[in-house]
């Protein structure tokens, strides 16, 4: 078998711990020891190898024991994996099914696994792909003489977020995936005593990395569906307490919600948590500090907070602080109104450099470029790019700088707003506006748009959850003027859930700009 499948086989078959997945219908944790999960993976591999359908495997659905096993089962069979989300709120089911299967077909998937109502939707769609019941595959008969392929070119076909453009697919080799998982484990000192707890979607690189890193460590893993978190975000604290988790991960807004509504949390113990990764979106230093302070009464150690940086093109993580460092903040010289989180130093095998950029007017920051052992082979359909150590540098599109080797991210170059010659990153405005009563947490977008004089103007869109729109709009404007020193041309309040997001939950700023410009 290929090195990635072999490494996971060794750990899963010898681990004394288990995988637990929350069943939303019964609100109970379904438990299987890791050796049994590997047994299911072997049956899924046998199912795949018995069919003449070479190609990648597509997975759809919220996590189950069988769905997690199918990842390893695909690798045992020498197949790459692509994981796509279930229908988003408001999507037309049949159109979603057709679009999902078309996307799978376009990236080389030939076999799709799902279950329940999602399986039915996919099977009813018109597609040449083999759409199978995951439960049937998990009950397949295995053979002691089954031969697993010794190598594979692709382990994961990972969709990029597409927050600033059309999503693309990163082709990740088994070696790149294994290198990233091992580097994460090394940086975080993971071992069999660790317990991972996550609600992140496994179709997102950070959610999948949480699954892989905990599994590779041989520890226990508790997975809750993303929908269960969305329905009741404060339950995250309950899950961490019940599992006695030592490792978790989430985007900034998840920590902000817990910190903001900590008075509604009770009877939890977070004393076991030694690593709380914060990634996937810009870090709000004030919000993270509020979370750490509020959760301190439940035993949370501020040193556990771990703001990190990564991207799908590098499998997942690029930089992570060492355990115990906690939130470290840098305030650029002369800028008392701006603070940025230090996101740690590069993982083993990865390199980071800063290239001077026209977007920087201070000479201290530039575009972040990366390369190393975890990098993708290419974007699907493009020529291979050697971005390994000593190879080509990959331009991330992020603007940042280094502080004693630790990375700081200021924002995306494509999203930069220039007002009267001053460069402003959207997160500066969004974090300030998000503190106003009546504005939904983590649901603010700031964009720049050209006026008739070809001078950029600041527009702000925010989801409104208050009672008086005019009062909230005025408060947002005053807050931005006072803290950021710039006056918005307009503040638009919209209904909760109406701002466009990627499948991983990131706000699509450029799509918001297009909508605002069209409405003017």
UniProtKB/TrEMBL annotation:
Keywords: Ligase. It comes from the Bacteria. Residues 18-380 form the AMP-dependent synthetase/ligase domain. Its EC number is 6.2.1.20. InterPro entries: AMP-binding_CS, AMP-dep_Lig_C, AMP-dep_synth/lig_dom. Residues 421-510 form the AMP-dependent ligase C-terminal domain. The keyword Thylakoid does not apply. It holds the Pfam family AMP-binding. One of its GO terms (molecular function) is long-chain fatty acid [acyl-carrier-protein] ligase activity. PANTHER family: DISCO-INTERACTING PROTEIN 2, DISCO-INTERACTING PROTEIN 2 DIP2 -RELATED. Belongs to the ATP-dependent AMP-binding enzyme family. NCBIfam families: PRK05851.1. This is Long-chain-fatty acid--ACP ligase MbtM. It comes from [Mycobacterium] fortunisiensis. The lineage of its organism: Bacteria, Bacillati, Actinomycetota, Actinomycetes, Mycobacteriales.
